[in-house]
Amino acid sequence: MTVLTHMVVGGAAGSFVEGRAAAFGLGMILHVPLDVMPHYEFQRLGLEVALVASFFGAMVVTGNAGTGVFWGALGAVIPDAENLLWRVGIIPGEWKVFPGHNRRLWRWLPHGRPLGPEHAWWQVVLGGAAAAVIARRLLLS
Ligand SMILES: [Zn+2]
Fold first, then answer.
1. Residue 25 Cα, ligand 1 centroid: separation in angstroms?
2. Which of 75, 63, 60, 58 is nearest to 12 (CA)?
3. Ligand 1: distance of its center to the CA of 80 in Å?
4. Residue 77: HSE in the Cβ half-sphere, 13 Å Cα cutoff
5. I need a surface site. Which of 34, 65, 123, 140 has the fewest CB within 10 A?
6. What is the mean pLDDT of each run of 10 residues along the chain (141 residues)?
7. Spans of all domains in the chain
8. Ligand 1 center–CA 81 separation, angstroms
């Protein structure tokens, strides 16, 4: 799953729970089903990293670093740090531990079949809906 989708879904879900740890944990748990579904992987790694960093930077600058949105989004993107390290060649694939990333766990939690960009529409719809939830929750708080 694209990190952007993980980020906004985790942030939206995190906005509905009390406490940073609960939001962080919920974001991390929701990472698993999004990775298990067949999905398109965004191929522009640098752009994706820049967008994720911009989101968290904007959350800090606007005083939203203590919100469930921030912590849910953080919990949702942290598992993909190992994918980033693997993709840039810092760690081998066998070192990945998160369910859905670790191939030894694929019997129970296989990573979703890769789809082409023409199938990314549902990820855009899901991400857009989650972003709308985030905007509403932040504006109403
Ligand atoms: Zn992942």
1. 15
2. 75
3. 5
4. 21
5. 140
6. 94 97 98 89 90 97 97 97 94 90 74 81 94 95 77
7. 3-140
8. 9
